[in-house]
Amino acid sequence: MKDSWHEKWRLFWLHGIPLWTTLLLMFLCLIPSDLVGISRFCPTVGLICVYYWSLKRSHIFGYISAFTVGFFMDVLSSSPLGVNILLVMLMVFAIQWPARYFQSASFSVIWFIFAVIGLGVFVLKWLLLSIYYNLLISPNEIMFNYLATVMFYPLIVAINIGMQRFLPQERINE
Amino acid sequence: MVRRSVLLIQTTELKILLRRLFIAVLFFCSIFFILLSTVDSPLTSGINKAALRITGPIMQVVEYPARILHRAYTYLYDISRIYLDNRELRAENKQMLILQNKVRSLEVENQLLSRLLNYTPPPEANFISAKIIAESSDNFTHILFVYIGDEDVKKGQIVLGEESVIGRVDTVSGQYAKVILVTDINSKIPVVVERTRARGILSGDNTEMPSLIFTRSTADIQEGDVIVTSGVGGMFPAGLPIGFVSLLQNNDIKVETLADISRIEYVRIVDYGLSTEQVKIFDGSSESGTDER
Fold it and tell me: At what angle do helices A153-164 and A107-133 cross, to 10 degrees?
């Protein structure tokens, strides 16, 4: 009985690796810019991680994980609560269908699909926030953020791939 | 055997249905949260405070190694520049001594004139220094997270960078506070142009330079004009510098903040003793201006 609980606990933590990695990367992106020497050139790592894990490990990174990531994206910013949750969950929903076809596609193809879906997510966020604030938010800043997110995709994915080897072997389907 | 397999199929179908229902509930929750945010409900405020209480210590832990590495780098860099710095500081010190004498004489003159006018000086403001532990680098938001320890900080208090206003306290929870910067879309500050006293509202729009809005079309505003708080609304005291006009294009007036937020390590949270009622009026919030600790 004790072993069984221990095993369950261990699996809980191991299956949570995608979520823990995502949250950790989000917190790392909050390090004050005076320490890293760059100003506001941080990608939206939450989006990259949600895309990557829901494409590659949808059985352990589903809607609950996406909801959690979206929730933290909201509370760690001044966005209205719920906006990022909705966007991240819509992203997971949008990925579900192509996931089965593109899971084994080349890296560049997956990156390109991220650029397309990401653009949709950023435009939707821009629209939602513009409606919420009743003000047309400057698209330049958002495009800059989008481009930074697409550019940093390989780096963030490389970190996630590194974390993938800690996942329980029997569940890896690649 | 057949009954068992039918039961199994039904159970599986039920599981799928429940799963879909759960996903629908999650979507509904997110939309519900957005709608709730529009009315500034105590529930969203409570969620934000609880989240800040949880994430504050994590942010502090994450920031710590980066801070140590930065200090080590700065230390080595400073050593390499020590000779040049010393020479510059000596020259600067000479000029400062001249200025100090001037300031002393002006202070005496000011006291004499104040006495003549029977002038009552405003109450002195209390302030605390708080360390920045995190900064939202998302282009959709411009906020800071600061560690305030056990100090008494209230929602709406002013946050100063070096000498100029950089934002206001939005949420206080435990030993942490969330600061909305003047560049954030949620920031609206009544200001005046120092030279002409033309009034307006400094409105953040999530760009690096907030806009000056609601100014008279006939107002005399030029590039380089200093923008200070007007004190209207009772939220901010009058005369605190924020920035200067850096761009004038048709009706669009862009203001560059005096403080370089990306280089600030510590901020000052100033308590001008404004009543919570004033904070409530300015914020338009239904909740109390004093946050729970």
Answer: 110
pLDDT tier for residue B223 given thresholds of 50, 70 and 90? confident
Q: What is the rounded CA–CA span in Å between residue B213 and residue B206? A: 15
What local confidence, expressed as pLDDT, does residue A48 receive? Answer: 94
Instruction: Tell me how many helices (H) and strands (E) chain A has.
Output: 9, 0
Chain B residues close to A30, C-beta within 8 Å: 59, 62-63, 134-137, 145
| Selection from B190, B159, B180 nearest residue B266 by Cα | B159
Shortest distance between the Cα of B285 and any Cα of chain A, in A, equals 15
Nearest Cβ partner for B138 among A35, A44, A82: A44
**CATH of the structural domain B125-293, one choice from 3.40.50.720, 3.30.70.260, 2.40.10.340, 2.40.110.20:** 2.40.10.340
Q: How far is CA B115 from CA A78, A98, B84, B108, B121, in A?
A: 47, 79, 46, 11, 11
Q: What ipTM, to 2 d.p.? A: 0.85
Q: For residue A65, what are the domain limits? A: 2-169
The tally of domains found in chain A comes to: 1
Who among B67, B140, B205 is closest to A35 (CB)? B67
Report how far Cα A77 is from the mean position of its chain's Cα atoms.
15
Sequence-distant (6+) residues with CB within 8 A of B154 are B169, B172, B271, B276, B279, B289, B290, B291
In a domain, A174, yes or no: no
| pLDDT for res B283 | 47
Domain boundaries, chain B: 2-71, 89-117, 125-293
Q: For residues B210-225, b (16+ Cβ closer than 10 Å) or e, as one string?
A: bbbeebeeeeebeeeb
Q: pLDDT tens for residues B129-157?
A: 888 888 876 667 788 899 988 888 888 88
Annotate B59-119 with DSSP letters as a single string. Answer: HHHHHHHHHHHHHHHHHHHHHHTHHHHHHHHHHHHHHHHHHHHHHHHHHHHHHHHHHHHT-
Across the interface, whether the CB atoms of A85 and B66 are under 8 A apart is answered: no
Query: Looking at the partner chain, which of A27, A135, A142 has a beta carbon nearest the beta carbon of B139?
Result: A142
